[in-house]
Write a structure and sequence with these properties.
Layout (H helix, E strand, L loop, with lengths): L22 H7 L2 H8 L6 H8 L4 E3 L14 E3 L2 E3 L3 E3 L12 H11 L5 E2 L7 H8 L4 E4 L5 H13 L4 E5 L9 H8 L43 H10 L3 E7 L2 H9 L4 E4 L13 H12 L5 E4 L5 H10 L4 E3 L1 H10 L1 H22 L12 E3 L2
Parallel strand pairs: 4-11, 5-6, 6-7, 7-8, 8-9, 9-10, 10-11
Antiparallel strand pairs: 1-12, 2-3
Bound molecules: ligand FNR.
The site of ligand FNR has 25 residues, from helix 2 and helix 12.
Amino acid sequence: IWAPAGGELIDKPKDAINVFDFEPVARKNVPPAHFGYMASGLDDEVTLRANREGFLKFQLLPRRLNDVSKIDTSVELFGTKYDSPIFVSPTGGNQFFHPDGEVAVAKAARAGNHLQMLSTSSNYSVDEVTKARGAPIWFQLYASPQWEVAQALIKRADAAGCPVLVVTTDRVAGRNQETLFRLMRTDTRECSACHDRSSFAARSVRRHNYDGIDLSGVTGSGESSNLSWDTVKRMRDVTRMKIVLKGIITPMDAELAVQNGIDGILVSNHGGRGEDNGRSTIDALPEIIAAVKGRIPVIVDSGFRRGTDAVKALAIGAQAVGIGRPYLWGLGAFGEAGVERVLEIVRTETRAAMQQCGVRSVKELNPGFVRRTA
Ligand code: FNR
């Protein structure tokens, strides 16, 4: 379920057979502290492992003798069409991995017409990334403990033309990222994105979405322990953007989201970085789909690496599937060309998995194509 045993490190994106091939190259290229930031889960990394193991609980039930010579992999979210059900999940500080950071990711997402979500803690601003993507992107919000800061960020995303605000709900406490802390200790390399070796949080050269916003009294980290349903209501009052809650992992919260007039749910455990000893998102998905009953769109991320992983989630009822670390491996390994190849691989695998299942469009997938074994 992890990277199949590999041989030599690949030296160009084209040589990658699967997305895992980029990880060791990224590990070689980026400073250990930055690789640690990318790789880390929390504590014993139980949730991180569960994300991959969860897929083994589901088996595909393919149907035969359907003509799948022409298939349509596109999806529509809030009225916008994307060529693939695979989207780019928001990740902070992409210059840790390559100087072109989120701009490289945007150009790669543009090449395959993928939805891109941009992190609050990006190194390029929402305007710069929207321009590079050549189309509106979704803005992920870490609602700062200070409402004025959250409001200023929302205003910025609104002004950049973002149609959707993705509010991250699963970072309310400090994080024990042991893999990161251990790799930081071994990090003696110089790095263009680091200007203060004593503080990891201060290591990014640019934190553009915060530019010009008064941050006095704010730690600047992603934590917001005072985030509540009331905060989300206040957001609704100050923006016309659709609101998607990221980090919902129980049917109870999914029901509350619907009751509170939320527009969509991103089922996520932050790639195993929310809390440890949680369950995988593919495990949680069926209950959430059952609770939501089609009233609002549900999308999912955390642990997706293969086309068959994506098809399982789409069959259960998710409308799109996000990836985080795989595109960061591509970015750290080869910059834009690496991200582009990662997206191409996941896209190609997803298309093939759909064809093998005998479906011609994402809409034709339904729970009958997947069986839960545990
Ligand atoms: C993240 N993630 C994240 N989420 C978010 O809402 N805002 C953020 O700034 C970040 N930053 C971030 C950095 C890094 C290095 C990682 C690995 C992840 C979580 C991300 O959006 C997504 O939920 C997970 O990455 C999905 O899991 P996989 O694909 O990495 O297993």
